[in-house]
Each structure stands twice: as C-alpha cells, then as structure tokens.
C-alpha cells in the first residue's frame, strides 16, 4: 500500500514536472517566435529572397521565359507557400559560389538553396546554419575519352579545372595529396568559365559534384567525346542554409523540407492534399495538413503551412520528377540512388509530425 502510494506520488510529481516543462516550452516558443528577425522581415517585405547559383539546369536555372526552374528553386517556392501562402512570393538572387556566403551573411537573402555542401567549418565558423539535405551528391571527374583514362588515379600530373570557393577545390587537393599524386589545378569563379576551359582543352579533366557533371555533359558541343569516371571521391550532402542565431527561421526551413519528404512517405501529393485534409483519418496526415494539432502555430506560421507547400509545389517526389525525372532537361534517375526514401533503399527520411 505504502509502496503503491509512493509510485502514485512519483507519477503525480512526474506529471506536474511534465506540465511545468510544457508551460516553459510554450513560453519559450512564444519568445522564440517574437524574436525571429528573418520571419518578421519576410512578412513585412511580402516575399522571400532566395539565394541561388547563376545557372545549373535541374537545380537552378532561368528558362527561356526568364522563369527560374529547378529542385532548389522549387524548394524556395514551397517555403514561400508555407510562410506567405503563395509559392510565387519569392525572388531569386543568383551569386557565384565565392559570393554566396557573404550574400547570406549580409542579409541580402533569407536563405541559400543552391547545392551548398554541408561541412563543419561552414556550419560552425561562417555564422551559417545548415538545416537539412535536399540532394545527396558526390564529387566526380569528367575527362575526354581520347585521353584514354579510366580511373581518377590515372590523372597523374593532369591539369584539372574546378571552381573556387567550393568543397570541390578542397577535396581535389586532399585526394591527390593523400595519394602522393601530382596534379595542376586550374580554378575559375563561375561554372561556365570552368566548363569552357575544360571543353577548349585547357584542362585534362573537370571536377565538381556528379549532378553538375551530368547536367553539363548534356550541354556540351560533343557529349559523346567525354566520359564521367566511375569514382566518387567524397559524398556531398547538399541542402538549404540560413544565418546562425535565428532558430525559429531555421526550424521553418527545416520543417518545410521535412514536410515535402514526409508527404511523399505518407502518399500526400499536390493532387490529393485537399481531399486528404478533408477526409483522412490518419492522425499524422491530419496534423501535417493542419486539420488538427496546431503544428504550424508552433513554428509561428498558419496551420496550413505544409498543406500549402504540398498543394502548390508538390511533395519531394513530385519536385524531383519535375526537375530531374524522365522528360526533364537534365535527368538523374532516382532508382538505385540515395535520393529516395529510406523505405525504398535511399537516404531520405523525415522526423515525426507530432
Ligand atoms: N557543392 C559544392 C560545389 C558547389 C558548386 O561548385 N556549385 C557550382 C556548380 S553547381 C555552381 O554553383 N555553379 C553555378 C555558378 O557558378 O553560379 C559546394 O558547396 O562547394
């Protein structure tokens, strides 16, 4: 009896503590929301400013009508739908890889969404904050077939074109140094300069993320004259970046990405989101679509934030297929690669919507 009472008392104490923590969390949440400088700025401006690169078809590139297209571009449209209720309320601001971090640090843009590789020094020492992974990539090499090279290790004393201010430049040096293989880097600020130099024969090889190699190969004068070597020398986790110190904005960007991936996992699409919001009985689907749970308010947004992102722009699979699937200008098959849901053998997974 005394024992049972002890347990009951402990339970009561635990409940009281939990209630206290919940209240503290709500108070903190409210304070956090009040201090999101970026969200306040975005709301006052009525638009999101999205930092992209100059041109990388499939990820970020203006089409013949001047409209930006790509996986990274669509992520910013989804964010605009989540935050402002309208996927079109976003302005794209291009910059070179060297200029992109100052562009974000100075407040010129609200985030970067442009194949930025997540590294410790960028995350910890540049005042930046990586929020997730939109595309799992890896560094590769392209050579002219006539060079007769089948592996990266055969590029001894080769001249290799790459871009400055990138992880690619650093990884290239690390990989060759670790193996005691000599080479000459030829570094350019923009991708078109690096590709043009390689194509004109100034370099024996061109190295960057494999997705870029694939995108550039299709646009070369004679694609059949070049080959992408089989080795991937490092993995590259690419995703959106915000400024450090605005936790609420980081959460909004992170959970918008989680919503796109989570929607694919739950079978929620742009076509069925409206119907599922009205009729689904699945608790997580209902919370994700704002039919119950108040999750949007916890982020400082409307409860229909994820619903608007999915309805207006689509889930991760729809965004991927639109920009990189069959029929797209650049095609990177999802099958067999890392950019599939974990349940399908890939690396994409979303935390719980609860
Ligand atoms: N992911 C690597 C490489 C980034 C990179 O080289 N990006 C190029 C190729 S996608 C780029 O932004 N090109 C467009 C431009 O130069 O404007 C990094 O974060 O450093």
Automatic annotation (TrEMBL):
Any single biological process term in GO: amino acid transport
Keyword line: Signal, Transport
Pfam families: SBP_bac_3
Gene3D superfamilies found in the cross-reference section: Periplasmic binding protein-like II (3.40.190.10)
Origin: domain of life: Bacteria
CDD domains: PBP2_BztA
SMART domains: PBPb
Family membership: Belongs to the bacterial solute-binding protein 3 family.
UniProt-recorded name of the protein: Amino acid ABC transporter substrate-binding protein, PAAT family (TC 3.A.1.3.-)
Species for this entry: Muricoccus roseus
């Amino acid at each position: 009896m005394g024992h049972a009472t002890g347990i009951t008392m402990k339970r009561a104490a635990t409940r009281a503590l939990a209630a206290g923590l919940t209240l503290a969390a709500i108070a903190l949440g409210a304070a956090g929301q009040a201090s999101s400088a970026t969200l306040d700025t975005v709301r006052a401006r009525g638009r999101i400013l999205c930092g992209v690169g100059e041109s990388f078809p499939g990820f970020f590139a203006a089409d013949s009508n001047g409209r930006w297209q790509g996986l990274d571009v669509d992520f910013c449209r989804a964010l605009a739908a989540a935050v402002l209720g309208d996927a079109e309320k976003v302005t794209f601001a291009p910059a070179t890889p060297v200029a992109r971090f100052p562009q974000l640090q100075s407040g010129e843009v609200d985030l970067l969404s442009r194949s930025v590789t997540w590294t410790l020094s960028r995350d910890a020492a540049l005042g930046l904050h990586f929020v997730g992974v939109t595309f799992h990539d890896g560094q590769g090499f392209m050579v002219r077939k006539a060079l007769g090279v089948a592996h990266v290790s055969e590029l001894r004393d080769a001249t290799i074109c790459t871009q400055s201010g990138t992880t690619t430049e650093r990884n290239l040096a690390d990989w060759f140094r670790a193996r005691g293989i000599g080479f000459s880097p030829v570094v350019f600020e923009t991708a078109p300069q690096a590709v043009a130099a390689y194509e004109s024969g100034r370099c024996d090889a061109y190295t960057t993320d494999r997705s870029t190699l694939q995108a550039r190969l299709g646009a070369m004068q004679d694609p059949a004259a070049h080959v992408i070597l089989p080795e991937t020398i490092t993995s590259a986790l690419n995703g959106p970046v915000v400024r450090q110190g605005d936790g609420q904005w980081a959460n909004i960007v992170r959970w918008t990405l989680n919503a796109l991936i989570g929607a694919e996992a739950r079978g929620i699409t742009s076509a069925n989101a409206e119907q599922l919001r009205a009729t689904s009985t699945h608790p997580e689907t209902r919370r994700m679509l704002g039919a119950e749970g108040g999750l949007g308010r916890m982020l400082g947004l409307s409860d229909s934030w994820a619903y608007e992102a999915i309805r207006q722009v689509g889930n991760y699979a729809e965004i991927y297929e639109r920009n990189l699937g069959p029929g797209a200008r650049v095609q990177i098959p999802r099958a067999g690669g890392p950019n599939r849901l974990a349940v399908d053998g890939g690396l994409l997974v979303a935390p719980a919507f609860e």
